[in-house]
Structures are given as C-alpha cells and as structure tokens.
Write a structure and sequence with these properties.
The structure holds two protein chains of two kinds.
Chain A: H1 5-8, H2 10-58, H3 61-73, E1 80-85, E2 91-94, E3 110-118, E4 121-133, E5 139-145, H4 147-197, H5 213-263, H6 267-299, E6 307-310, H7 311-328, E7 332-337, E8 342-345, H8 347-364, E9 370-378, E10 381-388, H9 398-402, H10 420-431, E11 434-439, E12 443-450
Helix pairs in contact in A: 2-4, 5-6, 6-10, 7-8, 8-10
Chain B: E1 3-7, H1 11-23, E2 27-31, H2 34-42, E3 48-52, E4 54-55, E5 58-59, H3 60-69, E6 76-80, H4 85-93, E7 98-101, H5 106-117, E8 127-130, E9 133-136, E10 141-144, E11 147-149, H6 153-164, E12 170-171, H7 172-178, H8 190-202, E13 211-214, E14 218-221
Helix pairs in contact in B: 2-3
The chains are: A alpha+beta, B alpha/beta.
C-alpha cells in the first residue's frame, strides 16, 4: 500500500503516537471517574439499607408489616425493595417474589438479582440487598435497585464518545498539517542547499520572521553561509596575491628571454640571459614552495611527534648560523640565551620559526644596525625575542605582516617572499604558542612558550 | 661507465633526465611503469636508481621496499612532487637513500646521483687529506701544509664533509641537509656566506684555491693537479 508522503513522515507518526497516548489517558480518566462514582453510590446505598434493616428488625413484629408496606409504597422511582419471608421461604409481605439464593442467613450486603413484583408486574432488578433472620424465624430482606449505575456507565461512555472522537480527529488533522508544513519548509531548504552545493554561495535559506526553531536554524545556517562566502572571497583574494607575486617574476623572465633571443650576439651573452631567467624562475618556485610549506604546517597533525626541545640550543644554533650573515651585512647580531628552558615541540619547525625571525630582522635592519636574539624567562613562560633597530612595523601593519604575502611598503625594494612571518605564525599556532609583533625602537618579535611541566 | 635505472612515467621528464645523464657519460635504462621498473631493478645490474614516487599502478616506495626485502642494495634517489617533510622521512625510512622534490634543477639531480655512486666508505682513518689540506678528526685540528687553520665547529664539520666528498659537486641543498641538517630552505643564502668564510680561511690569496664555486650549482673541493 502506498501512503501519501505526509502520512509516512515522522511528524505525522509522532502525532499519531501522542494522540493514542492522549486517548488512553482520557479513557483511564473516565474509567476512574466511573469507578469512584460507583463506589461512592454503592457505599451510600449500603448505608441506607443497613440503617433501614436495623430499624425494621428492631420494630415489634406487628409494626413490621406496616413499615414494609410504607417503604414499598413511598417509592415513585421503583428502586426500593423489601420483603418478609416465613422460615420456609414463603413471602409474607413486600415487593420481592422470593429470597434470592446466596442471601439467606447472611449478614453482609451483597449485589444480587431479584424479581420485583408490584402493580406494574414482574421485573428483574439488580440490587444491593441484605437479609436478616428475625427472632420469630422469619427472614427480613431490604434492598435497593442499583440499575442507576448501569445508567451512569452509559452516560460516561457517551461523554467519552462525544469528547474523544472530535479530539482525535483534531489531533490527526493537526499532525497532518504540521508534517505537511514541515515538509514544505524542508523542501524549500533542500532546494536552497542544493543550489549552494551546486556552487551558488549567494543563496540563503528562507526565513519567515517567526521565532520558531526552524527560523532560528535557518538564521544560523545563513550566518554560516555568510562566513563561508566571506572566507571564499578572502581565499580568492589570496589567490590574486599569489597570481600577482608569481606573475611579476615570470613576466621579468619572459622579457629577459625575449630580449636575449633578439639581442644576444655571443654564447656568453645568451648564457647570462639564461642564468637570469633561471634565477627568476627559481624565485617563482620559491614562492610556491613557501606556500606549500605553510599549508603543510597548517594541516600538520604532528603533535604526536613532539618531544622536549631545549630552547637555548635552538637559539644558539640560529645565532651561529646567522652571525656571519649579519656581519656580512654590517649588522651586529647579539645573542643572549639563558639556560634550562625546554618546550614540547618539533625541533626542526622551531628552528625554522626562529630562523625566519632572525632572517627578517637581519634583512630589514640597515647597515650599522643591531639585532638582538634573546631567550628570556618570564613568570610561567619563556620568550624567544628578536629585536632590531630597523625601520620597525607600524601598529596598523602588524596583523597584516603575518598574513600571507604581505610585504610592508617600506621593504618593497628588499628581496623577500613576504611569507616568512606567515610561516612563523603557522608554526607557532601548531605548537599552541603565542606570537606577537610590537614596536620597540625598531621591531620586536616574540614567541612566548609556556614552560613545559615536568 | 655507471649504469642508471630511471623509473619515471612522465615521458618528457624522463627524456630530459636521460639526455642530461647520457651527456654526462651515464648509461641510462628507462622503465615507464612500476612493474617494468621492478623487473629491471631485480637484475641488480644498475649502479644507481632514480625512482619517481607516483607511478601508475604502483607507488615508487613499494618498489624500493620490495627491492630491499629481496636484499637488492642498489642506491636509490627518490623523485617526488610531494615535498612535505613527512613524505621525505617516509621515503628515506622505506629504504631510499636520497630524496629530491620536483621541480628540481638538473644539476642538483646529477650531483646527488654522483654522490650516491661515490658514497664514501665508512673509513676508520682519523686524518683526512686532500692535497696539502689535512684534517685531524681526533685532535680537531686542520692544517694546510705548515699553516694551522683555526675553524669554528660548524666550519670544521663543513670542511670534513667536503673532504670526505672531494672532487664532487656539492649543492647548497645537499650541504644544508647534511651539514646543518636543516629540513627547510632559509630565505637568505646561508650556505654561500658560511662557505665564503671557510674559503677565506682555507685558501689564502697566494695559494692555489682548493674550494671552487661552480656557478649556479654549488661547490667542489679539489686537490691541486
């Protein structure tokens, strides 16, 4: 059997389940009301007949017949039952044909079926009744018709039917409506999401200006899409930068090769042109290598391979490495490494980070300047600090220099790939360290390493 | 004449490498697929192998691993477009002897092949000699003829490395990897500066130069003829 889709939907099924549970509860409630009413009425009836049987039994025998007659006569609703029977079971007075079996010689009140005889004829009635043996051997029976209880049960049933059916229909209809509505909205969302997946990032989920969870979800997803769109634009921007930084040297190479082909007269001249061209290509390749390196570090999950790295060794090694380079450039490199700091990390990457900082400092400090590479102990962390007295980096550029490819305008004429600090930032992030650039007299770059606990 | 086995699926790259190696006097055997390469390598006839990492049907590393398990000890240079440090470490652990990332300079490739072919045997000698140059590994002293040369520890290691590989072209990348054990390429030309210092100490202006700069390629330590 093929059901309409909304019936198979989860919303609709849950509606059915809830309606079912609701119906059961109502049913139990009505049942309870009926049961309590019956118990209460029975108790009242029982009290009344037990008072009455006591009263009549206490009467002298000659007044009993009158009392029974009076009781039977004052009964327009035909609910009172009374009977006086001789010891052999013959009826002496009252409106009960004979003593019901199961009631003889019993002092408790019971539910029995009796045959009522009066001027309306014979009739079976359900009753609560009690029998009492009298001192003269006769048996007195007093009872009360309780067919009313059956009537009450019928009323309860009717109320149930009248109340429950519309309620259930309403529940099912609401369920169907809700599931239809949910389905429509989900279909809208699906359609939009499909468009987004298809590449149209400008699509947004529909919102209805309501405060329902659907709208909240849609607003969240739209926020996410905004963020993704912005990021993609940013990436595209980085792509443009890359394209630009690659195109510049490549264009130079192309011009050189073209001119070389036209103008070179000797093999030597051609060789010189080729050498220049190769250098230009190497520069472009270095840009790509640096980019891949950053991506590699950023995506690295190398934490597992981390070990204790002695920071003084790292600092001294880089100091040794760069001392001659600084000297060649007429820059003084001062090294100040205190002992005893370790950090959890990858030794090669930490070397690379510090090397990049020193490389930058040495490169951007003018002849006669000073670069200081120091390892300092501060409270709970140690700090690798590279300080120079070069031109420095303006506060407005500090974030930007960490971004890929940014090169401060002051240094456009200096060789460099603009990627050094991005590499440092990536390495520092991987290690969970802190990287700051601030203004000293020149530029101060710091990597703060929390002390490894041992 | 050294026999080289080249396992490389890209025809153009292979042609360039073959042309250059033949020009340099190598005999080159070319295999375009991993299976073919493995068959040729098993014969054990080649003196050195160049293996591309990404081959159709088979990873270059698988070939090397298989060969090493079969106790074929031919030195292998791995070529790869994957430059990541981890890939490099894996390549070397699987039994490669050297690792070169694409794109590479052809001189770099040749220098590394020659280095693999002429790998210095583990010698027990404690004094290395190249021409008038004498390096004492135990006393940590260097002399050229009668002249003592005072070197910093790093310069000492650099010279030791060069003396063990005399008459060989050593590229900047090789020196960075072997002497400084750097896993990255610094932006500044560090090697040139350090080499300049060493040359200044080893070759005085009135002496026959021993350290030679090969333009665009690297350095050679050469005994005077």
């Amino acid at each position: 059997m093929h059901l309409p889709e909304f019936i198979r939907s989860t919303t609709f099924r849950w509606t059915l389940v809830v309606s079912g549970a609701f119906a059961v509860c109502i049913f139990l409630l009505f049942g309870f009301i009926y049961w309590q009413t019956a118990v209460y009425m029975t108790a009242r009836v029982d009290n009344a007949i037990s008072d009455e049987v006591n009263a009549i039994a206490a009467d002298p025998p000659e007044r009993r017949l009158d009392a029974i007659d009076a009781r039977v006569k004052q009964d327009p609703r035909r609910v009172r039952l009374a009977g006086l029977f001789s010891a052999d079971g013959r009826r002496i007075a009252g409106n009960v044909e004979r003593l019901p079996p199961g009631l003889q010689d019993d002092s408790a009140i019971r539910s029995v079926v009796v045959v009522r005889v009066d001027n309306h004829g014979r009739e079976n009635q359900t009753a609560r009744a009690i029998a009492r043996s009298l001192p003269n051997g006769e048996v007195l029976m007093i009872g009360r018709n309780v067919d009313e209880l059956v009537e009450i049960a019928r009323i309860v049933e009717e109320a149930l039917a009248l109340g429950m059916l519309p309620a259930l229909c309403l529940a099912v209809a609401t369920g169907a409506l809700l599931s239809l509505r949910a389905k429509t909205r989900i279909e809208q969302v699906n359609k939009q999401v499909e468009r987004v997946i298809g590449g149209d990032l400008r699509q947004r989920l529909p919102t209805h200006g309501l405060d329902d969870p659907f709208d909240k979800l849609a607003v969240m997803v739209n926020g996410m899409l905004d963020e993704i769109e912005a990021l993609i634009h940013k990436v595209a921007g980085v792509g443009d930068d890359i394209a630009h930084d690659l195109r510049t040297p490549l264009t130079r190479v192309r011009v050189r090769l073209e001119r070389g082909r036209e103008n070179a007269r000797t093999l030597e001249q051609l060789r010189a042109v080729t050498d220049q061209a190769i250098a230009g290509l190497d520069q472009s390749l270095a840009v790509i290598t640096a980019l891949l390196r950053i991506a590699e570090i950023e995506h690295s999950r190398r934490l597992a391979g981390f070990s204790e790295v002695a920071l003084p060794d790292v600092v001294r090694e880089i100091g040794d490495m760069y001392e001659p380079i600084a000297e060649d450039r007429g820059v003084t490199l001062r090294l100040d490494a205190a002992d005893g700091f370790t950090v959890r990390g990858d030794r090669d990457l930490l070397l690379e980070a510090v090397a990049n900082l020193v490389d930058n400092a040495v490169k951007f400090t003018p002849r006669g300047g000073r670069v200081e590479l120091a390892l300092l102990r501060g409270g709970s962390e140690s700090v690798v600090r590279v300080r120079d007295n070069g031109p420095g980096i303006g506060a407005n550029e500090r974030d930007a220099v960490v971004r890929r490819f940014y090169r401060s305008d002051k240094s456009r004429h200096t060789e460099g790939l603009g990627l050094g600090l991005s590499v440092v930032a990536a390495i520092v992030k991987l290690h969970g360290l802190r990287f700051t650039i601030s203004a000293g007299p020149g530029c101060v770059a710091e990597i703060a390493c929390p002390q490894a606990h041992d | 004449m050294a026999k080289t086995l080249l396992i490389e699926d890209d025809r153009e790259t292979a042609d360039e490498i073959i042309a250059e190696l033949v020009h340099r006097g190598f005999e080159v055997d070319w295999a375009a697929t991993g299976i073919e390469g493995l068959d040729k390598a098993r014969s054990g006839e080649s003196d050195v192998m160049i293996v591309d990492r990404l081959l159709p049907g088979m990873d270059g590393l698988t070939i090397i691993e298989a060969l090493r398990q079969e106790r074929v000890r031919t030195p292998v240079l791995i070529l790869s477009a994957l430059g990541a440090v981890d890939d490099r470490v894996r390549g070397l652990r699987m039994g490669g002897d050297d690792y070169l990332t694409k794109p590479f300079a052809i001189v770099e490739l040749v220098a590394r092949i020659e280095a693999l072919l002429r790998r210095p045997a583990e010698s027990r000698e404690t004094i290395l000699r190249v021409g008038p140059l004498e390096l004492d590994l135990l006393a940590r002293t260097v002399r050229r003829g009668d002249r003592m040369i005072d070197l910093l520890p790093r310069e000492f290691r650099l010279l030791e490395y060069m003396m063990r590989r005399r008459e060989q072209l050593l590229t900047r990348a090789m020196l960075l990897e072997e002497v400084w054990s750097y896993k990255f390429v610094p932006q500044t030309n560090l090697v040139d500066v350090h080499m300049g210092r060493l040359r200044h100490k080893v070759d005085k202006s009135d002496e026959v130069p021993l350290i030679h700069n090969v333009r665009g390629a690297g350095f050679i330590l050469r005994a005077p003829a």
